[in-house]
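lol forgot to send this yesterday, sorry. struct tokens for the thing we talked abt
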């Protein structure tokens, strides 16, 4: 082929071929973008759930540890009246005394924030202690806590075992005196300030049985707490 023929050659892609190639490239680019966005979203969700789980476990173990020291005297019910699904009121204390002086703690969920207020004893003796009207300390346990399901549930004995049905709240004097088990369940959102992702919320749960000894060793037909 001569030089003149090469210069005048009009061969190349047609418009249809260019449109098809462009559309194929856009489909490939769209697929890659979707994969990248999905991967980033899933990574953010996993990281958020790990963050929520770690924070929730710290708060959960703190509450459960306090409940494990709630039996301050034999057959004295530590869970107090007016405890609800979002507010737990109970006595607890540690020490070597036969009947240590307890502290009244109130763990409350309001507006997604879980706080604990501690009221020191001001006088009295077992089981008629008196407590300060104002807390000596209030601390924020965590934020981003869902109110549903209710974080606190209370159970009594029925037919020789813990009933599967929680007691109605708020607890009245009769049900508070029969509460032998408290279940704490927290559903927590990540602490990040990005777009809320309901799928990143984490749920943790634990239970405290309020007894000195296993139920099998109880000689009381009433199966009251702290025996």
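and heres what i got for the seq, position by position
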């Amino acid at each position: 082929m001569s030089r003149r023929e090469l210069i005048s050659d009009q061969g190349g892609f047609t418009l249809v071929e260019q449109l098809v190639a462009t559309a194929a490239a856009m489909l490939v680019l769209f697929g890659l973008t979707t994969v990248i966005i999905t991967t980033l979203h899933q990574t953010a969700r996993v990281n958020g759930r790990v963050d929520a789980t770690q924070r929730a476990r710290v708060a959960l173990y703190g509450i459960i540890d306090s409940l494990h020291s709630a039996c301050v005297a034999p057959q004295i019910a530590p869970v107090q009246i007016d405890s609800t699904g979002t507010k737990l009121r109970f006595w607890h204390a540690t020490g070597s005394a036969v009947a240590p002086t307890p502290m009244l703690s109130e763990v409350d969920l309001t507006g997604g924030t879980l706080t604990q207020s501690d009221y020191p004893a001001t006088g009295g003796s077992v089981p008629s202690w008196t407590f300060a009207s104002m807390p000596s300390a209030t601390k924020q346990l965590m934020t981003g806590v869902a109110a549903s399901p209710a974080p606190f549930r209370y159970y009594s004995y029925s037919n020789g075992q813990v009933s599967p049905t929680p007691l109605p709240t708020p607890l009245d004097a009769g049900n508070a005196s029969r509460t032998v088990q408290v279940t704490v369940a927290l559903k927590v959102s990540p602490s990040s300030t990005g777009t809320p992702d309901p799928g990143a919320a984490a749920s943790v749960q634990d239970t405290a049985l309020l007894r000195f000894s296993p139920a099998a060793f109880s000689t009381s037909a009433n199966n009251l707490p702290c025996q």
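The mean pLDDT is 83. anyway ping me if u want another try
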